[in-house]
Specification:
about 450 residues; Lyase, Ornithine Decarboxylase, Chain A, domain 1; TIM Barrel; 2 domains; nine-stranded mixed beta sheet; 21 strands; globular; lyase; lysine biosynthesis
């Protein structure tokens, strides 16, 4: 029996994509009539049987394909460009290592991410350190490792880094992060290019501060950087405006006699979760070329979600279906501590049943929720889904970015396992956290030693 057409979600003018639509837009996924939902050539049911659930599953082929698409678009636009994967999107060593093999560097925002990038095989010469709150310790490590560049976010941070570098007798290569006051028209929690945001310095004050960087000891100013937001899916206009303003600033700085060798164009290119139509890599490359292409600067990019997001799914198992009044709740063993985006950003993620029979079964509205003791522990409301009895498997799509990296152990829930698939093989790239590991490092205060709480 054919599944009925899905209904529009509340507040939406268009219906949710059908299961077939979701599959057609995701080349790494397929529904085998016997084995069920596959990532590349591996049945998700096989992974669940071997590793358990919830489990993150990443497609190596998707990571490679998308990295190459972006590299090709920049090359075809005639841009001298390097790509530095934003590891905050997914810092798994196996993911970062695979992308390093594709020639990508890394964009990091903490000591942990810096150490992770190095451990994954990214050379220091390919690492950029971003972020508004670098500590003295982080600055010292970055300088000691001689990374490619530190992005300066404020006059105060410039003074701090100057003092640290001078104390080490070294020079730190720096780029000034400029806030172009461009509205990327993305979610308020992930916009970064407006004057009200904490990131960067206002573009009007940039010439004065750049001159200051050139005079400070221990600093080697090499260029500018900008990042206007994440999950930008409203065309290319915001990018064009930002890069146009950045190009004008490059000319002004050079006219004042200051060196500008690089422009870091940031990331933020959106992906299709539901029915968004984000700009293509070719369109983004065109916007960069229009604003900066005649300046002879080295172009840098910091994509994260665009590469990793479509490469991952969260595989989860149904605990029970609960029918209360007029609502149907599908309670799964994944929760908001695993995938925070729906609770934090009201994010939409496609959900597919793993069973081939469920894929073809009649649908009815259901709320898919986790077991965490929060009402916000909800992945979706009124989503049309087939009957999902206990032990049924479902895959939450496009979870390769800001999934595992934002997960926590809230409600004392161990971190989920992570698996990478390549062709017909798969490998655990991060073990499921044990309860012993969850409790490790905790202890009672010394004054309770010897006391029997019973």
């Amino acid at each position: 029996m054919a599944a009925p057409a899905p209904l529009p979600i509340p507040g939406s003018e268009t219906p949710d994509p059908s299961f077939g639509d979701l599959l057609a837009a995701r080349p790494a996924l397929a529904m085998d009539p016997l084995a069920g939902l596959m990532v590349e050539e591996v049945p998700l049911a096989r992974i669940a049987a071997a590793v358990g659930s919830p489990t993150w599953v990443y497609s190596a082929g998707t990571l490679r394909r998308r990295a190459r698409m972006l590299k090709d678009a920049l090359a075809e636009a005639g841009l001298d460009a390097s790509i530095h994967y934003a590891t905050k999107a997914n810092p798994a060593l196996a993911v970062v290592n695979l992308l390093a093999q594709e020639g990508l560097g890394a964009d990091v925002v903490s000591e942990g991410e810096l150490r992770g990038a190095l451990a994954a095989g990214v050379p220091a010469s390919g690492i950029v350190f971003s972020g508004v709150g670098k500590t003295d310790r982080e600055m010292r490590l970055a300088i000691a490792e001689d990374i490619l560049q530190l992005n300066i976010e404020s006059a105060e941070e410039a003074e701090m880094l100057s003092a640290v570098a001078a104390s080490l007798g070294r020079k730190a290569r720096v780029a000034l992060r400029v806030n172009p006051d461009v509205d990327a028209k993305t979610h308020a929690k992930i916009t970064t290019g407006l004057t009200e945001n904490k990131f960067g310095v206002p573009i009007a004050t940039a010439p004065e501060l750049y001159a200051r960087l050139c005079a400070l000891p221990g600093l080697d100013p090499v260029g500018l950087t900008v990042h206007i937001g994440s999950q930008i899916a409203q065309g290319i206009g915001s990018y064009r405006a930002a890069y146009q303003r950045l190009g004008e600033l490059v000319r002004e700085l050079r006219a004042a006699g200051h060196p500008v060798h690089r422009v870091d164009c940031g990331g933020g290119l959106g992906i299709t979760y539901r029915d968004e139509i984000p700009a293509t890599p070719a369109a983004l490359a065109g916007a960069i070329k229009a604003g900066l292409g005649d300046l002879g600067v080295k172009i840098m990019m910091e994509p994260g979600r665009w590469i990793a997001g479509p490469a991952g799914v969260l595989l989860t198992r149904v605990i029970v279906e609960k029918h209360a009044t007029t609502r149907r709740f599908v309670i799964v063993d994944a929760a908001m501590n695993d995938l925070l985006r729906p609770a934090m950003y009201e994010a939409w993620h496609g959900i597919l049943p793993v069973s081939p029979s469920a894929f073809r079964a009649p649908l009815s509205p259901a709320d898919v929720v986790g077991p965490v003791c929060e009402s916000s522990d909800t992945f979706t409301k009124a989503r049309d889904l087939p009957p999902l009895p206990p032990e049924s498997l479902v895959a939450i799509l496009d979870a390769g970015a800001y999934g595992a990296s934002m997960s926590s152990t809230y409600n004392a829930r161990p971190l989920a396992a992570e698996v990478m698939v390549e062709g017909a093989r798969f490998s655990v790239i991060r073990d499921r956290q044990s309860y012993d590991a969850l409790l490790a490092g905790q202890r009672l205060p010394s004054w309770t030693e010897g006391q029997n709480p019973g």
